[in-house]
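Example complex used in Figure S2.
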Amino acid sequence: MSDIAPVLARVDENLSSSLEKLFALLRIKSISTDPAYAGECRQAAGFLADYLGELGFEASVRDTEGNPMVVAHHPGATAQAPHVLFYGHYDVQPVDPIELWTSDPFEPAIRKTENGTEIIFGRGASDDKGQLMTFVESLRSYKEIHGEMPVAVTILFEGEEESGSPSARPFIIANKQELTADYALVCDTGMWDPETPSICASLRGLVGEEVTVTGADRDVHSGDGSLVVNPVHVLCDILAGLHDESGAVTLPGFYEGVSETREDVRRIWDELSQMPANLLAEYGLSIPAGEKDRTSLELIWARPTAEVNGIAGGYAGAGFKTVIASKATAKVSFRLVGDQDPEKIRDSFRAYVRSKIPADCSVEFARHGGAPATQLPYDSPLLARAKAALSEEWPKPAVVTGGGGSIPIVGDFQSILGMDALMVGFGLDDDRAHSPNEKYNLISFHKGIRSWVRILATIADMPKSGA
Amino acid sequence: MSDIAPVLARVDENLSSSLEKLFALLRIKSISTDPAYAGECRQAAGFLADYLGELGFEASVRDTEGNPMVVAHHPGATAQAPHVLFYGHYDVQPVDPIELWTSDPFEPAIRKTENGTEIIFGRGASDDKGQLMTFVESLRSYKEIHGEMPVAVTILFEGEEESGSPSARPFIIANKQELTADYALVCDTGMWDPETPSICASLRGLVGEEVTVTGADRDVHSGDGSLVVNPVHVLCDILAGLHDESGAVTLPGFYEGVSETREDVRRIWDELSQMPANLLAEYGLSIPAGEKDRTSLELIWARPTAEVNGIAGGYAGAGFKTVIASKATAKVSFRLVGDQDPEKIRDSFRAYVRSKIPADCSVEFARHGGAPATQLPYDSPLLARAKAALSEEWPKPAVVTGGGGSIPIVGDFQSILGMDALMVGFGLDDDRAHSPNEKYNLISFHKGIRSWVRILATIADMPKSGA
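Predicted assembly (934 residues):
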């Protein structure tokens, strides 16, 4: 391991200039969902490319069909040093409703709370400008102390993450060679709590399906019920049949590729069981839904789901209409874990639905994406080293968590570039990402930079090829 | 029985002047759903009151909150003569899409088809101006021949039937004394086929319920599925559970008050089984839905139903949104038969729904009407006499049918005025009521008038109080 004590000391000394850089970036209104801010998005990309250039990177702003990517390369200290790909995004969410902000979202400021906590306010403070700058600033201090980087670094900054990353996959495919490294690092997730850092080791996959059942060739007066088939009934039967009484999904073959959570992982999660209880309370709920005899964390992180995300059929306006609809439609998504195959699950769903359609009715399907789950193996040396490094920095030891959602670009790193991703971030649940008065605790920024110093130092000691 | 031969002959002689009267009524654009035609509705009411006045009625146009009613009274030939209340409606459906009409909807005309059938074209030709005029014209011929009416007659013409009859029930309650008679007659239904007249002896009742299930206090990202309860799942389970595998409704007590169809009635219906097969084919369907081992006619006329008329929850727009909705809602209606109690069924439904709501979710209900089924007893002398009278007039004997829908005013006649209603009409399935190129066969109009002459004659021989 490189000597990191002087680098960490430099991080501390650099904090106010690091904040200046961050603030300059936060002032750029790089809202990606509104085309009116396309110029500001390009400005943010240019700002980052320029800054990386100053740090010795070969950096460029690269056009896409949407907002540009920033790609930058820096060699490692030695030819033997591993090569990391770091991903973050410079675009931010819109600021509406603007009237709920207590100060200008694009005039960042540090304020002290009553208990003395210093907080960075501004759109993008945590998601993701503050987070991506933790990585960049760790590199700066390395460079300043050692004159070189501990590992070879490729940086990919995206400008469309908040609007669905339409350009990401084509860009990764088109630049596969250039973007491939030994390890991928992502800084867009959160801490377990303000004292406990977290590594997100898994994300669930996703299959989206839209199903439309057609009965009569037009809406029918319900005076002809129940002679005329009601496609809403057919659809409700189908959807109700997706789960059995234990909450398990009934589709044939659905659990192929799903492993039970390892005992050691389960023990860790059992200790972490506090958060999802809070999550339910936050939504005004108290009873975990889904499979019985599973812990809440297991349900979100390690178990697959079938969810109806939308349903419509017949008359749903004000008042009442005694109609038997001609059509009923639902949007259904499956969250996948382990080695579940998205296309096999899509096929199983469609076969199940078709088996429940009366002979004189018809059914149509539309596909809405499909991606497998991603998982950083629990015995990965990268995970073990990152955990140790984070535990050195923070008051409490790092925990390994999962994610219930899906980040398609992490799947792309795995499926296209063949790289596992280490997801580490310093956001907190109360950071209000996507909401008014977004913030990032100063300690998250400061210790985040220090955390990357430690993680990069330990990666420098690893072999070049992936764990 | 009065001597009806000269009255029938007079009907034949009067046919062209009867048509002139009908055409004058058809020219009035009495569209009730569009307030722009309120003046024309009042004009139609005035036209009818004036005409009834010419026939010796004490007739008046009576204001309501909406379009006016026409109420008219004529004494019977003797104090012992029974008293009938006749109901029809002078308002018509809108004419959109106007471009599909082959001639002006309000310029009625008689045209001959290739096989020589004469047909009256125009909005309201069958629904319901043509039909109500069959009754009025039968009275005219009576009056002209005998100088008096065979029975005491009260007429109630409504002007809001096509827009939900909002004023009918309050009007009937407010004028209970004036409107009560021995028998109610309604001319707003159809023939079994062009040669077979029909008496509609029953209508189903209706209970409407709207149910809204709430889970989380806001929409939740489905990355938290299945930890967070999905109210669409809860609702689909509830709705799927409303029917068992045999198609029967599962609500406790639902079939209380439902009798099996009498053997003699069932035998008649078995012979009539042709029409509903056609009905299914007309909608592009072939398999009767609903309870197993029931004939199609039984299903529509004599069995209660539970139907979902509308469902909505989550994201149903274009594309896909991985959301777990906070709320899901459905509109559910029950068609009732026999002595089923609307309020007991509403209570049973609500209790069933509540029993399926997870403890941390909530449910709200909204009521949308409730009315019991109406039934003219199969052994009613009125039914037997009307059947005989119609069978005299038409090529084939009259059949007794049921109706799958609900006509609330007929329920009001029963529940408020204590009167059974005889529903006889001369419309045909291809009359295109509510559609462009509405028509009424000339023979329906002509034989319809003659049919009422016969029915009134036979009622004149009945006792004053209801069957």
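The radius of gyration of chain A is 25 Å. The longest helix of chain A spans residues 5-26.
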